[in-house]
Amino acid sequence: MECYSTRPVTVSVKFLMSSPEIASLSWGQMKVQGSTKIYKDCKVWPGGSRDWDWRETGTEHSPGVQPADVEEVVKKGVQTLVIGRGMSEALKVPPSTLEYLEKQGIDVLVLQTEKAVKEYNALAAQGVKVGGVFHSTC
Q1: Per DSSP, what are the bridge partners of residue 42?
Q2: Which Pfam families match (predicted)?
Q3: Claim: this prediction has a pTM higher than 0.85
Q4: Residue 131 gets which letter from DSSP?
Q5: Max alpha carbon distance in the chain (Å)?
Q6: CATH for 90
């Protein structure tokens, strides 16, 4: 005898999106796991990545990374944000951006881009909800 229930079954599934690994970095080129695109500058967060187009916010090397540049990544629910200042660290990070991140309760690391990528990948591998904005040239 087989027994079938006609009651609906509720299944709860929680999807945890991890931060994608930065697969490669060289001058002017970054590749991110899960994307076929080659980025010059990029934003990454748990579950995604995209071009970081400085024209969207009027960003320049100085004064540098603005709160508007990191806001999108912060809204993705990151615990830590890594900022890659470029291969020669030409990109500045003004106090207003650091203050914005502190007010949001976000840990922030500001590093030369090669070091930033290594740190970001290490945090991502540990399961930290990490995001980043990376400049891959000067």
Answers
A1: 51, 134
A2: DUF498
A3: yes
A4: E
A5: 76
A6: 3.40.1230.10
Name the DSSP class of 85. -
Residue-wise pLDDT for 117-128, tens only, equals: 999 999 999 999
Torsion of CA 42, 44, 85, 74, to 10 degrees: 120
Neighbours of 72 (CB within 10 A): 15
Give residue-wise pLDDT tens across range 10-68.
433 334 579 999 999 999 999 999 999 999 999 999 999 999 999 999 999 999 999 99
Whether the Cβ atoms of residue 30 and residue 42 lie closer than 8 Å to each other: yes
| Dist CA 78 CA 28 (whole Å) | 25
Residue matched to tokens 């970095």: 25
Token pair of 22, please?
A: 């930065």
Helices 95-103 and 67-74, packing angle to 10 deg? 30
**116: pLDDT strictly greater than 80:** yes
Q: Decide if 96 is inside a domain.
A: yes
Domain-embedded: residue 13 = no
